[in-house]
Every structure is written in structure tokens, then in C-alpha cells.
Specification:
Elements (H helix, E strand, L loop, with lengths): L9 E5 L9 H17 L3 E6 L10 E3 L3 H11 L4 E6 L6 E5 L8 H12 L10 H21 L7 E6 L4 H10 L4 E6 L3 H8 L13 H7 L3 H13 L2 E4 L2 H11 L5 E2 L12 H23 L8 E6 L9 H12 L8 E6 L4 E4 L1 H9 L14 E3 L6 H8 L10 E6 L14 H5 L4 E3 L9 H8 L4 E4 L3 H10 L9 E4 L6 H16 L3 H16 L3 H21 L1
Parallel strand pairs: 1-2, 1-6, 2-5, 6-7, 7-8, 8-9, 10-11, 10-15, 11-14, 15-16, 16-17
Antiparallel strand pairs: 3-4, 4-5, 12-13
Length: 550
């Protein structure tokens, strides 16, 4: 650490995903926790929502003795909290706060936010109220702890993630101006909305008025709290150069620091364990594929995967299916391909006919009915993946070299079919494909290369841009990451490039595959938190210096 930079003596960080595994931000915070905890110890405190009801969060271990037995005092004063440790590497302190009592004060809180910061909560709907009350409750936690631990003479930083934590940050900015504030938008509300509504984002970014688009797309309140948080934070940050440009154009505020998302690779098995687990999961994929398709697969079968949130266009699921459709019709492909779409949808039960086949231990030569997916969906007739497969007449016929299987559930180890964790399935891939249209960073390709699986992504993903920067030129599949140039309008070209890259990769010799896998692992090590944490230290320094002047 640079001694010239100011560094927090206490760091509070809030997110809806603290001890609450919802999406990519959970990965950001949970993997970064150990690196920060190694420096700050128990002067690092994460704050998350107590939204588990009568059940306990599987990621949280209560311990009310932490923070000098503060929990009892806070609860006696009407602030319902539970103190414990987040069950991730580093085991940092976590405070889960019950935000529901603050709903009774909602109108007053919104009124104050309008008067002091021009935050427009008038058009709120959906999760805005819930997120805002959590954000406010998290700030009350910091305010109470600040007093209890006598922190007024210490350097204190409050780091708020996403618009969902912005209101609390503004509250602290007003009530405790000594606290330095960092605000990170992981993706702008309006940028995601423009992309998600099939409007061209990038070519017209310079021409969009963020406020006007927020009104048109009915996200005024979320956009408002995000914009005001960006304006009033001591350090405004985002996760990639792509999103930094978006922030400038749509929020009207340049970012102070870009904080790329790193990770810890201690969850990646080593040596013989890695080889064994890879062999086991490939065998299981082939077994499940046999039970679905009635066809046997040798180890020379190429396993390809895509995964992420079910954002059909933004995550490039549409162009992935398009490329697989073109691949199965290309006579240059000489190997069988199993393409897995691991995207949690509105999932129903695991298929009983498939479970029965798996339990029998037999090998099958006929497919099951509807041989496209592992679990039934609650909306079988209105699902984007299934609709596109039907549109292209992709039914996994015997003569098709490419078989696409939809796995519409979270792979948490108890899905009823795979019964393996997501990471244990990823390491069985030969190639991963994430052709995102809107992806501020992109953890899925980073996780893929960490498991020595080369991947294809685009330069509309922050990770793809970073991979190009590392090489100093467009990254190719031999480098471990193939970064495809993507625009608002070159969908067909992207699909063809994916198809051609897969065909080329399928023709690689064993030594060429080995080199690509080694390159994938090498580039992943450049994204460890020990490398990327320095950007956070810059943000803390900026925030603390501004707070000191204030």
C-alpha cells in the first residue's frame, strides 16, 4: 500500500447482496472481502438486508459479541440488527438489518431526500421502496455504530453499491459529513433499460438525455437516486471504461476511479484434484445428455457453455443460440458438440422422466419427449430460449452434430439433475461463450478462464475490453480469450465469428488446446484482487481527502 495515500481506519460497505447471493455483486464483494480483511481486520464491516424471515441465511453466522456487544444496545434503541460473520473467505463482520420498520417513515424520508438532494421518489414502483428502506436502515446502522465506537476522530469510509444503497449514502453525507463516501454503480439504471428495451445504446449514447430517457422508460426514481448519489459522493466509481462512458453521458458525472472486478482463485482445484473433477463432470454431462438425447458421446465431444442472468439480449443468449444454429449447419464441423445454456429461468420441477432414466443407470438409444431441457418451466409456451429453438427448428435430432440443452435453474448442488455446483460444471467445458451486448464487467468469462477454459466474449463487456488491453491488441482464442468486436447492429457478424471460432478451436491439436488453456489461466491471474485492490485504495484516498476538506 502506498503510504502517501490516505487509508480508512474503519470501512463500512453496504449492498443488497451482502450475505444474500443474488447476482454478480455478491461475487464482487465476497471475493474481495479477504483482501480487505487482511488489511483492516474487524474494522471492516459489511451491511446487508435481513430478508430471510424465519430461515437463516446460509451465508451468515451470528455472533452478537462482535463490535463490542453493540447488537443488544442497537436493538434496545429500536434498530433491529443481527451481528455475525459473512461465511466467505476472510470471514468479515456482517450486520444484517431489518429495514421493514422504516416503511412507516417512508413519506418523511422521501420528503427529506427531495428537499435536500432533489431525489424524485414520486414515480417509485417495484423494488424501489424496499431497496430505499434498506439503504436508509444501513445508514442508521453506521450512524449508530459511529457513535457507539467513538469514531469521530478516525478516518471512516462508507462505500455504497448501486442505486439500491444510494439513499443511505446521501443520509450520511448530510448527517455525518466527516464520513468519506464512495458510490459504485455496477451498471447504470438507464443504460440497462435502454439496452433491455431493444434500443441502440452505443451509437447514440452521446445523443441520449438520461433524464428524458428515464421518463420514457419509466425508471425516473431509480435514475434520480443514482444520479444524485453520483453527484454527491466523495468518490464516484464504476467497474469498467465502458460504463464510465455511460455514466458521463447518462448521469452527467465523470467517474473518479474505475474499479475493475477481480476475484480470488482459491476456489479453483489444483493438480490431480482438478483433473479428477474435470473428468467426473464431463462424464456426468455425457450421461445426462445420453438420457435426454438417446445418443452416446465420446470424450472428443466438445462441451460448450454459456451462463448468467436471464437477460436474453443483454447477455447475448440470443446470439449464442443463433451461432449454434449456424454451427450445426456448417459442414466444416467434424466433432460432436454439446452446448449448455445455464441460465436460471422461471423454473419448475426437475423432469421426472429424466430423473428416472438417470436413476436406472442404463444407456439409452432413444430421446425423451421434448429433448431440449433438464427442468420444466412454469412458462413453457412463453420462454425466449425455447421459442428461439422452436423458431429455428432445433430439436436435437440424431443427425445434428450440435445438441443444445437448456438448464434453466441455479446450479447450487441440489437441482435434482446435475446436483453439482456451478463452478464444478464450468470446469468441464472445453469452451465458454458470453457474447454480451450489455455487460459492465462480466464475471462469467473471468470465472471461465480461472478454470482454464478459454472463452469468447465481446468488447461491449468490460472484461473483454480489459483482455484486449492486456494484450495490447484484439485478444484471440489462442490468448485464452477471444474478444469479438460488437456494435448495435452487427449481430449476424458476431454469430458468424462465434461459429468460425468454435470450428477453428474444434480443429486444434492437443498441444494447441493445452496452450490456449494455459493462456486462459495466465490471464485470469492478472485479475486477482491483489492486483485490482489498488484501484479501491485510490478511491478511498480521493474520498478521504474530500471529506477532510469538508
Amino acid at each position: 500500500m502506498d503510504n502517501k495515500r490516505l487509508f480508512p481506519e474503519f470501512l463500512f460497505e453496504s449492498s443488497w447482496e451482502v450475505c444474500n447471493k443474488v447476482g454478480g455483486i455478491y461475487t464482487v464483494l465476497s471475493t474481495r472481502a479477504k483482501t480487505l480483511h487482511d488489511v483492516l481486520g474487524d474494522r471492516l464491516v459489511f451491511i446487508g438486508p435481513d430478508c430471510w424471515g424465519d430461515t437463516e441465511s446460509p451465508y451468515f453466522e451470528p455472533d452478537s459479541s462482535l463490535l463490542e456487544n453493540w447488537e443488544k444496545k442497537a436493538c434496545a434503541e429500536g434498530l433491529k440488527v443481527r451481528v455475525g460473520r459473512w461465511l466467505v473467505h476472510g470471514n468479515p463482520i456482517a450486520v444484517l438489518v431489518d429495514f421493514k420498520p422504516f416503511f412507516a417513515e417512508k413519506d418523511r424520508i422521501y420528503g427529506e431526500m427531495w428537499e435536500k438532494f432533489s431525489v424524485d421518489s414520486l414515480h417509485a414502483y417495484g423494488d424501489y421502496d424496499e431497496a430505499s428502506m434498506f439503504s436508509y436502515a444501513a445508514a442508521k446502522v453506521v450512524e449508530n455504530l459511529y457513535s457507539y465506537l467513538c469514531l469521530s476522530s478516525h478516518r471512516v469510509v462508507y462505500h455504497a453499491n448501486e442505486w439500491m444503497c444510494g439513499m443511505g449514502m446521501l443520509y450520511l453525507r448530510d448527517r455525518l459529513p466527516k464520513i468519506a463516501t464512495v458510490f459504485t454503480t455496477h451498471a447504470t439504471t438507464i443504460g440497462r433499460s435502454i439496452a433491455g428495451n431493444n434500443k441502440p445504446l452505443y451509437d447514440y449514447l452521446w445523443a441520449y438525455d438520461g433524464d428524458m430517457m428515464a421518463a420514457e422508460l419509466n425508471v425516473q426514481s431509480k435514475h434520480s437516486i443514482e444520479k444524485q448519489s453520483a453527484i454527491h459522493a466523495d468518490a464516484f466509481t464504476t467497474v469498467s471504461d465502458i460504463t464510465a462512458r455511460e455514466c458521463l453521458e447518462l448521469l452527467g458525472k465523470p467517474c473518479d476511479v474505475v474499479l475493475p472486478n477481480g476475484f480470488e482463485n482459491d476456489f479453483v482445484p489444483k493438480g490431480a484434484t482438478f483433473t479428477r473433477k474435470r473428468r467426473e463432470v464431463r462424464k456426468e454431462v455425457f450421461r445426462i445428455a445420453n438420457c435426454i438425447l438417446g445418443e452416446t458421446f465420446g470424450d472428443d465431444t466438445l462441451i460448450i457453455g454459456t451462463s448468467g442472468r436471464y437477460e436474453f439480449r443483454n447477455k447475448g443468449i440470443d446470439v449464442f443460440i443463433e451461432s449454434m444454429n449456424r454451427l450445426l449447419r456448417d459442414t466444416r464441423l467434424k466433432r460432436k458438440v454439446i452446448a449448455l445454456v445455464e441460465v436460471p429461468g422461471w423454473v419448475g420441477p426437475a423432469r421426472e422422466d429424466l430423473k428416472e432414466r438417470l436413476a436406472s443407470g442404463k444407456t439409452f438409444d432413444t430421446p425423451i419427449e421434448y429433448p431440449l431441457l433438464t427442468h420444466w418451466l412454469n412458462n413453457m409456451s412463453h420462454d425466449h430460449v425455447l421459442d428461439m429453438l422452436k423458431h429455428y427448428d432445433m430439436w436435437n435430432r440424431k443427425e445434428d452434430k450440435v445438441k443444445l440443452i437448456f438448464i434453466p435453474c441455479y446450479l447450487t448442488g441440489n437441482d435434482g439433475i446435475f446436483n453439482k455446483e456451478y463452478y464444478d460444471v464450468v470446469l468441464g467445458n472445453d469452451l465458454s461463450i458470453y457474447p454480451s451486448y450489455y455487460e459492465p464487467w462480466g464475471y462469467t468469462p473471468l470465472e471461465s478462464v480461472a478454470f482454464k477454459v478459454p472463452c469468447i466474449t465481446t468488447d461491449l463487456a468490460g472484461f473483454g475490453v480489459w483482455a484486449n488491453t492486456v494484450k495490447g491488441a484484439p485478444s484471440e482464442i489462442e490468448d485464452g480469450v477471444k474478444t469479438i468486436h460488437r456494435t448495435d447492429y452487427n449481430y449476424s457478424e458476431v454469430a458468424d465469428t462465434i461459429k468460425d471460432t468454435v470450428i477453428r478451436f474444434a480443429s486444434f491439436s492437443d498441444s494447441e488446446v493445452k496452450k490456449a488453456r494455459a493462456a486462459a489461466e495466465k490471464i485470469s491471474k492478472k485479475a486477482l484482487w491483489e492486483k485490482f485492490i489498488e484501484y479501491y485504495y485510490d478511491a478511498y484516498d480521493i474520498a478521504l481527502r474530500k471529506a477532510a476538506v469538508r
